C-alpha cells in the first residue's frame, strides 16, 4: 500500500493517512483499555491491598489499620484456624471426587449416544443453574430435614431407623456441595469427550483393541485435560464456599469461608480476614499455576 | 459356530446391554437428581401455611395459589428482587460493552502491535479461576481502606469485575470464525472504521455478544458470595434470602425462585431453537 502514495502527494492526505496509521497502532490498546482498567483497579489492586492489609495491625474499636509488617499474622491464623482449612479441604475434595465419578458416565453417554437430543441433555445438566444458588441449598435443607416429608416417609416405612438424621452432618454438607457444583464438573468432561476424534477410536478398533482397551487407552487419556479443568472449576469454588456448610452443616464442621466472612463482617478484624484470604488464595494458586503450566491459560475457555 | 464367534456374540450383547440399558438408566437417574430439588421448590411454592407466621414449613398443608396472588407482600423481598434486576441490567450492559471490545482486541492483534496481550490472557484466566470469596474479601478490603460506602455502586463495580472476563471469553469463541474480508469490502467501498463496525462487524458478532450478555446477567443475578461482602444496606435477592434463613423463609421466596427459573428456561430454549435455525 505504501508505494501507492507518491512522494509529492498533497500534504493533507499524507497527514490523514498518518493519523489513520497512528490510530491503527493504538487500536488494540484503546479497545482493551476500559476492561483492562476495570480489571486492574477492581481485581489486581484489591488483591495487592489485601496482601498489604494482612501485614497491618488493625484497631478493632476504630477499624483503623497501620502497617506493622506483621508477618507473624500468617502462622497465627494457621494455628488458630488450621482445623477449618482441613475441613474445607476434605469437604471440597470429597464432593469434587463424587462429582467427577457421577458426571463421567453421563457426560460419556451424552457425547456418544445423545444424538439429536444432545442440546436437551446439556440443558438438563445445567438446569440447577436456573434456580438461585441460595434457594437450591435451602431446598436441600428442606429435603434432608428430620421432619421433612422425605425422611419422615422413609422412617415410617422402616427403611431408615427412627433416630436417623443427616442435616447438620458432614455428609449433608458434601451432598449439598456435590449437587450445587455438579454442572461445573460435568460440562468440561462432556466437552473433552465430545472433542475426541472418532476416527482415532475407530483406528484403535481396527487394530483389534477391545472395548475396554479403547476406553482405557484412547478415550480416558484424551479426557484427562477436561478432568483437570473440571477439578479446577469445581474444587476452587467449593473450597471457598460457606453457604452449604452454614445451611446444611452443624456447628462442629465449620469451613474456612465462614471464618473469613465473620472476620470481615462480624468481628471487623480486617487484618485477620485478609491474611486468611491470602492463605486461601495461595492454596488455590497452586492448582491454578499447575493447570496453566501443563495445559496453558487459553484452554480453560473451551470448558466454560 | 466356533467358540471365538460365540464369545464375540456374548461380548456384543453385553456391550449392547451396557450402552442400551445401564448407561441410559444411570443418566436419567442423574437428571432426575438434578431436577428433583427444583420440583420440590415449585411444589412448595403452592403449599398452604398454618399458624400465625407466614413462613414456609416442611409439612404439606394443602394446595394454594395464595403466594402467587400475594407475591409482593413481603416488602424487603420485593425490594431485594428489583434491586437484583436493576443491578444485573446495569452490570450486564457495562460488562458486555467492555468485554466485547477486549475480545476484539485479543482476537485481532498479536504481540508486535499489541504488547501486554499475554498479561491480559493471564489476568482473564486468574479472574475466572480465583476463588470468589477471595475476590469479594479483597474488594471489601479496598473499599474499607478507601473509605467508600458500600451499596449499589460498589455492587456494580464488583459484578462487572467478575462478569467481564466471561463475556470476553464467550464473545471471543464466536469471533474465531469471523470473515475479515467482509470488513475489507466495506473499507474498499469507502466506509469509515466506525461505520464499518456498526454496519458490518457488530451485526455479524451479535449472537456471540448476546450469549455473553446472557452469561453476565445470569452470573450477576445469582451472585451471593461477593454481594454479601459488598452490599451494605442494599441487599440483592440472594443476600436477602440467605439472611432470611436465620429467621424463617416467607413462601414468596419460592414464588420468585419459580419465576426466575421459568424465565431462565424460556430464554435457554429460545436460544437453542434460534441456534438450530441458524445452523439450518
Please give a structural write-up.
The complex is a heterodimer of chains A (304) and B (280). Chain A has 304 residues and is mostly helical. Helices cover 72% and strands 2% of the residues of chain A. Chain A has two domains: 2-53, no CATH class; 71-303, MetI-like (MetI-like fold), CATH 1.10.3720.10. In chain A, strands 1-2 form a two-stranded antiparallel sheet. In chain A, helix 2 crosses helix 6 (170-194), helix 2 (73-113) packs across helix 11 and helix 8 (211-240) runs antiparallel to helix 11. In chain A, 41% of the residues are buried. The model of chain A is unreliable at 1-15 (pLDDT under 50). Chain B has a domain at 75-249: MetI-like fold, CATH 1.10.3720. Helix content of chain B is 75%, strand content 0%. Chain B is built from eleven helices and no strands. In chain B, helix 4 (117-129) packs across helix 6 (152-175). The chains are: A mainly alpha (304), B mainly alpha (280). At the A-B interface, helix 1, helix 2, helix 3, helix 4 and helix 8 of A face helix 1, helix 3, helix 4, helix 5 and helix 6 of B.
Please specify the SSE layout and strand pairing.
The complex is a heterodimer of chains A (304) and B (280).
Chain A: H1 11-53, E1 56-58, E2 65-67, H2 73-113, H3 118-126, H4 133-144, H5 149-156, H6 170-194, H7 198-206, H8 211-240, H9 243-248, H10 256-265, H11 270-295
Antiparallel strand pairs in A: 1-2
Helix pairs in contact in A: 1-11, 2-6, 2-8, 2-11, 6-8, 7-8, 8-11, 10-11
Chain B: H1 3-44, H2 66-69, H3 75-108, H4 117-129, H5 132-145, H6 152-175, H7 181-188, H8 193-221, H9 225-230, H10 237-244, H11 252-279
Helix pairs in contact in B: 1-11, 3-6, 3-8, 3-10, 4-6, 6-8, 7-8
Amino acid at each position: 500500500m505504501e508505494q501507492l502514495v507518491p512522494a509529492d502527494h498533497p500534504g493533507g492526505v499524507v497527514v490523514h493517512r498518518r493519523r489513520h496509521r497512528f490510530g491503527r497502532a493504538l487500536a488494540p490498546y484503546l479497545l482493551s483499555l476500559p476492561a483492562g482498567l476495570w480489571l486492574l483497579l477492581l481485581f489486581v489492586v484489591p488483591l495487592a491491598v489485601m496482601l498489604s492489609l494482612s501485614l497491618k495491625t488493625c484497631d478493632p474499636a476504630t477499624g483503623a489499620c497501620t502497617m506493622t509488617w506483621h508477618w507473624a499474622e500468617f502462622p497465627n491464623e494457621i494455628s488458630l484456624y488450621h482445623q477449618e482449612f482441613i475441613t474445607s479441604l476434605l469437604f471440597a475434595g470429597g464432593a469434587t471426587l463424587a462429582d467427577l465419578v457421577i458426571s463421567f458416565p453421563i457426560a460419556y453417554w451424552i457425547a456418544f449416544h445423545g444424538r439429536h437430543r444432545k442440546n436437551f441433555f446439556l440443558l438438563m445438566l445445567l438446569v440447577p443453574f436456573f434456580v438461585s444458588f441460595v434457594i437450591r441449598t435451602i431446598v436441600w435443607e428442606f429435603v434432608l430435614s428430620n421432619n421433612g416429608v422425605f425422611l419422615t416417609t422413609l422412617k415410617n416405612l422402616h427403611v431408615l431407623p427412627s433416630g436417623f438424621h443427616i442435616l447438620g452432618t458432614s455428609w449433608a454438607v458434601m451432598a449439598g456441595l456435590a449437587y450445587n457444583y455438579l454442572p461445573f464438573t460435568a460440562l468440561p468432561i462432556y466437552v473433552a469427550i465430545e472433542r475426541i476424534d472418532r476416527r482415532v477410536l475407530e483406528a484403535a478398533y481396527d487394530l483389534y483393541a477391545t472395548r475396554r482397551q479403547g476406553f482405557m487407552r484412547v478415550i480416558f487419556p484424551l479426557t484427562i485435560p477436561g478432568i483437570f479443568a473440571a477439578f479446577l472449576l469445581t474444587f476452587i469454588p467449593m473450597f471457598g464456599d460457606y453457604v452449604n456448610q452454614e445451611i446444611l452443616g452443624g456447628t462442629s464442621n465449620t469451613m474456612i469461608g465462614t471464618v473469613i466472612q465473620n472476620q470481615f463482617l462480624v468481628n471487623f478484624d480486617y487484618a485477620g480476614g485478609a491474611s486468611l484470604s491470602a492463605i486461601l488464595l495461595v492454596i488455590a494458586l497452586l492448582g491454578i499455576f499447575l493447570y496453566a503450566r501443563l495445559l496453558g491459560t487459553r484452554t480453560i475457555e473451551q470448558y466454560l | 459356530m466356533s467358540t471365538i464367534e460365540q464369545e464375540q456374540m456374548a461380548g456384543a450383547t453385553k456391550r449392547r446391554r451396557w450402552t442400551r440399558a445401564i448407561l441410559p438408566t444411570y443418566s436419567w437417574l442423574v437428571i432426575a437428581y438434578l431436577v428433583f430439588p427444583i420440583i420440590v421448590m415449585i411444589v412448595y411454592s403452592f403449599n398452604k401455611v398454618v399458624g400465625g407466621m407466614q413462613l414456609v414449613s416442611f409439612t404439606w398443608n394443602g394446595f394454594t395459589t395464595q403466594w402467587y396472588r400475594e407475591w409482593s407482600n413481603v416488602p424487603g423481598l420485593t425490594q431485594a428482587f428489583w434491586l437484583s434486576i436493576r443491578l444485573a441490567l446495569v452490570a450486564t450492559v457495562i460488562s458486555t460493552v467492555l468485554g466485547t471490545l477486549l475480545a476484539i482486541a485479543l482476537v485481532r492483534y498479536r504481540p508486535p502491535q499489541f504488547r501486554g496481550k499475554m498479561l491480559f490472557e493471564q489476568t482473564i484466566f486468574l479472574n475466572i479461576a480465583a476463588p470468589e470469596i477471595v475476590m469479594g474479601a479483597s474488594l471489601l478490603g479496598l473499599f474499607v481502606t478507601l473509605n467508600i460506602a458500600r451499596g449499589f455502586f460498589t455492587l456494580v463495580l464488583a459484578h462487572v469485575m467478575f462478569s467481564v472476563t466471561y463475556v470476553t471469553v464467550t464473545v471471543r469463541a464466536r469471533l474465531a470464525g469471523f470473515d475479515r474480508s467482509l470488513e475489507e469490502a466495506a473499507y474498499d467501498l469507502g466506509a469509515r472504521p466506525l461505520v464499518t463496525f456498526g454496519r458490518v462487524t457488530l451485526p455479524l458478532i451479535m449472537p456471540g455478544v448476546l450469549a455473553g450478555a446472557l452469561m453476565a446477567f445470569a452470573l450477576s443475578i445469582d451472585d451471593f458470595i461477593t454481594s454479601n461482602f459488598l452490599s451494605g444496606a442494599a441487599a440483592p435477592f440472594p443476600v436477602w434470602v440467605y439472611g432470611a434463613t436465620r429467621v424463617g423463609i416467607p413462601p414468596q421466596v419460592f414464588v420468585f425462585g419459580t419465576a426466575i427459573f421459568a424465565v431462565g428456561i424460556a430464554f435457554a430454549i429460545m436460544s437453542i431453537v434460534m441456534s438450530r435455525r441458524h445452523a439450518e
